[in-house]
Design goal:
CATH topology: Transcription Regulator spoIIAA
Number of helices: 4
CATH architecture: 2-Layer Sandwich
Number of domains: 1
Strand order of the largest sheet: 1-2-3-4-5-7-6
Strand content: 15-25%
Shape: globular
CATH class: Alpha Beta
Structural class: alpha/beta
Largest sheet: 7 strands, mixed
Length: 145
């Protein structure tokens, strides 16, 4: 499926094989645009029952207000997990300074990946590494079934 901008700031593409939802920031996002993009991704994930996401934020802002991360962890990720019936695997790709800024604002140090009841999350600066991690997550999910 071809990538389709859902707005002038975000693009979403679903791939059936292997199962993958790709999201890509097209320009720096406001908080409202960020949360709207999350909701658009959730709608696509529900539609395709797709728990594997590759999220490319390299064009985004390096820092967000703390409340955004609280909303992600406390509200959005649990809703996503409930909608899919399983913990999603989210690979975030960003520029190195993005991860450094998160750590500087007490969101780290960020491990290369973490798991919670709501989601399995990996942080990357390279898309190939993110895709390798998602493939590992797919294998682990298949082995657990």
């Amino acid at each position: 499926m071809a990538a389709a901008p859902v707005a002038d700031y975000y693009e979403i593409r679903f791939e059936a094989r292997p199962l993958l939802l790709r999201g890509r920031v097209l320009r720096p996002l406001s908080v409202a645009e960020f949360t709207e993009a999350c909701e658009l991704l959730l709608a696509q994930a529900r539609r395709h029952h797709c728990p594997y996401w590759l999220l490319d934020g390299r064009a985004d802002e390096p820092v967000r207000p703390a409340g955004v991360y609280g909303w992600l962890n406390d509200e959005f990720l649990p809703r996503l997990r409930a909608a899919l019936g399983q913990a999603p695997c989210l690979a975030f790709v960003a520029e190195p300074h993005f991860w450094q800024n998160l750590e500087a604002h007490s969101y780290g140090p960020l491990a290369p990946a973490q798991s919670s009841p709501s989601a399995h999350i990996g942080w990357f600066t390279d898309e190939a590494a993110a895709m390798d991690w998602l493939a590992t997550q797919r294998r682990a999910t298949a082995a657990a079934r």
